[in-house]
Amino acid sequence: MEKVDILGVKISKLTINQVQHQIEKFLFENNKKYISTVNPEFVMAALKDDDFKQILNNSSIAIPDGIGMLWAAKYLSWKSNLKNRFLLRINENFRIIIGGLSLIFYPKFCRTVLSERISGVDLMWNIAKLSEQNNCSIFFLGGYDKVGEKTAKEMKAVYPNLEIAGVYEGLYQEADDYVIQELINKSQADVVFVAFGQVKQEKWIVRNLPNLSMIKLAMGVGGSFDFIAGKAKRAPRFFQKIGLEWLWRVILQPQRIGRIITATFRFVRQVYKYKMNNYGQN
């Protein structure tokens, strides 16, 4: 499976149709697979946490969950023969501007390396559909205030024949691992969605997956439960299409501004620094 390197994190070079095909294969196999939904925040976290980076790079599939991933893949693919450092900086800053504007005015320009953004929420729905078609059951792990239960009900409403294996909510602590393993194993679930928040959920999956006897596929889903359960509102389709979903979140949840800055400006700066530091080494 071909992958694209973004600051040391390997992203699967797949379309949504190809991802769905791979998932259907996973559901027929007895192997244990996990999917990572990589966005700029994940990459920034991986720069400070080698264990997390390794987890992402060992994913069965690592989808580009964020328009910034498409931009970074395109920007890092551009080469330059300029030797003068001053001219090189001007050239690279110009490319950053061009790439950013293209996301709004000509999105196809940034889709030549990674062809499309695949959101974790949308992939959850795809997995639910495939699970229904293949008689596989899903366990919903994480969330609070019955958001996991509401998520399961929403998916069941859309896919009536989908089997809900179980739901486990509440504040997570590592000491709960054995109890959760027992619940999932007794449920005989084939798929588990883990909503413990980025980094924590991926580390939980890698630590516990070997002890989940029937699970064929695990995926960390972050705040996707909130969107499906209706606790949080997704950006209108227009904002999603042009890559400004982050702006919509700032408008609705200004307290997220710190995370948004990390996922946008700090990420762009880090990608720029990485490229400048590695010129002549590629």
Mean pLDDT over the residues: 88
Query: What are the segments in which pLDDT stays under 50 over at least 5 consecutive residues?
Result: none
Q: Order of helices and strands, N to C?
A: EEHEHHEHHHEHEHEHEHHHH
Shape designation: elongated
Q: Can you tell me the CATH class of the largest domain? A: Alpha Beta
Approximately what portion of the residues adopt beta-strand conformation? 5-15%
Oligomer: single chain
CATH topology (fold) name of the largest domain: Rossmann fold
Describe this structure in words.
This protein is an alpha/beta fold and 282 residues long. It has two domains: 3-33 and 119-229, Rossmann fold (3-Layer(aba) Sandwich); 67-116 and 234-276, no CATH class. The chain contains 13 helices and eight strands. The chain has helices at residues 16-28, 40-48, 50-57, 67-77, 85-105, 120-133, 147-158, 177-187, 200-208, 224-229, 237-241, 245-252, 257-277; strands at 3-6, 9-12, 33-38, 61-64, 137-142, 163-168, 191-195, 217-220. The protein has a six-stranded parallel β-sheet with strand order 4-3-8-7-5-6, with helices on both faces. It has a two-stranded antiparallel ribbon with strand order 1-2.
Helix and strand layout, with pairings?
Elements: E1 3-6, E2 9-12, H1 16-28, E3 33-38, H2 40-48, H3 50-57, E4 61-64, H4 67-77, H5 85-105, H6 120-133, E5 137-142, H7 147-158, E6 163-168, H8 177-187, E7 191-195, H9 200-208, E8 217-220, H10 224-229, H11 237-241, H12 245-252, H13 257-277
Parallel strand pairs: 3-4, 3-8, 5-6, 5-7, 7-8
Antiparallel strand pairs: 1-2
